[in-house]
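note to self: dont lose this again. the chain is below, predicted strucutre after it. 535 aa total, dont forget to put it in the shared folder this time
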Amino acid sequence: MAGLATSFGSGAMTNSINEILGAELLFLIGTNTTEAHPVIGYKMKQAKRKGAKLIVVDPRRTELAAEADYWLQIKPGTDIPLLNAIMHVIIKEDLYDKKFIEERTENFEALKQTVEKYTPEYASELCGVPAEDIYAVARLYAKTDKAGIFYTLGITEHVCGTNNVMSIANLAMLTGHIGRESTGVNPLRGQNNVQGACDMGALPNVYPGYQKVTDPAVREKFEKAWGVSLPAEVGLMIPEMFDRANSGEIKAMYILGENPVLTDPNANHIKSGLEKLEFLVVHELFLTETAQYADVVLPAASFAETDGTFTNTERRVQRVRKAIEPIPGRTNWQTIMEMSTRMGYPMHYNSAEEIFNEMASLTPSYQGMSYARIDKNGLQWPCPTPDHPGTKYLHAAAFTRGKGLFQGIDHIPPAELPDEEYPFLLSTGRILFHYNVTTPYSAGINSIWNEEYAEVNPDDASRLGVTTGDKVKVTSRRGEVTTKVQVTDRVPPGVIWMSFHYTESPTNVLTSAAVDPITKTGEYKVCAVKVEKLN
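---
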């Protein structure tokens, strides 16, 4: 995985969206694409109609699972045993790409040794997928020339999220399904400019373009450009910030465009952290659940009120143009610039383009970009020179580190599983009608789907004595919510599924405080709850 670190570390697709139409096989794991990424989901449906095979790994029967050639209804949190078993079959049956492995990778023996014990029969016991399906999927993926893997938060929102991604990278390298058109490892970003935010350095360990803050040469370059001395230490991830807010070590926060009270796991911990701050600034469009804790709310400008760029999930940098003048009288960058100036670091930019040009001059992967070049269709990074056409797919000739590094990865169970007191497994996700968390602010969306319906299997509903529309109380070790239920066989017995879009049913009061030790991403996909019918 280390060989693919640049693309996976930044969460970017190795390949392009339109390459889906040329794929012969689409392997979807941990992604409900038609609801969370509907444009890409439609491309996948087009590919299926053109004859592409479709493999879907998901505990829940999604729209694409219903269309799949193979739907592997996995137990939540057991992706690694499944992937290891697929690789076990590919190695045992001599289906792996020996030439690719010899020329482009290293540490193959470590992978081979680790997956040896993950027979399909053994993995089936752990993940609940029939062994014969594991054999069939392994053979199909290995023997198909143009096969791409697609994943999203169903892979990363686990305590082993990083290892899940590394396991996917192992599988792609094992079969040589990387560095070519209509193949690759393709994480789909959760929101429209998550990729752009990460590219710009909105991570505590990097400057723009994933240049490490711990690298003295990189730090010196930015110190010279900005005229300041910069710290050599990696900053804090969001969960660490709230831990330190709760302990009193962090006294103040400035939150721009985030609503952690509704969207972050273990929401009561978030609320208590905000309450303990001495000063909280929230820069927002609406008086969100988080903004209600603020000492000062700064009015934000939306995408329609500002010029700039968004970078989408295929690494394409695109122009954003304001449709109206900013209602607050200034854009977000102008507000930040003015605050910085008043706090002692003068900023004097005249336009979003000027800011972009400075960033591109300091960022190798963006260095060849300008507003003129991205005006119509955008460009995909890396684009290192003004005459470079952009990069359609990554790793064509070599990986970032040279050779791709296989890693032997064992199963890591979820931090919390059902037990006698909390017998249900709760998993969470999004629904099509609510892009992320929009419910209170859009009358149109609210009119379509205005409240939570927790999905409950008919067998469980019968035992609980509930039918669709009944209200239940869902309780975890961290909190409780009330919600209506929808009785459906989309979820297996023992599992309930909820979205996190509704203020009245704030699902993240329930979710686990456990995080991936490397990325600090919360384990939204697995926690233990009990469900009780309300009269």
